[in-house]
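Human:
If only I could read backbone structure tokens as easily as an amino acid sequence. I am handing you a single protein, as its sequence and its fold in token form. I hope you can help me see how the letters and the tokens relate. Thank you; the sequence and its tokens follow:
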Amino acid sequence: MKRWKLIKWVNTTALACSLAMLLSAAPASAQPTNANTTTANTTRVVDRDDDTDWGWVGLLGLAGLLGLMPRKRAVVHDVDTRDRDVGRR
């Protein structure tokens, strides 16, 4: 392994380890700091299903993108059958 690759690898590893230690030491902000704290969470369920099948619209959109694909063209190989030594003497 070349020296600069080794140095880059060591620096990346050190950075990853230091970030992992820093993030594991800090408490998550979503967790309450006091375990005895209770809050009443109320959720409201809203049924927004209006029986519209949007999957078909997505498939039509993807079908419209098919025209943007490059076409496969036949490969033409030009074969030069002339003698290369014609002009030389």
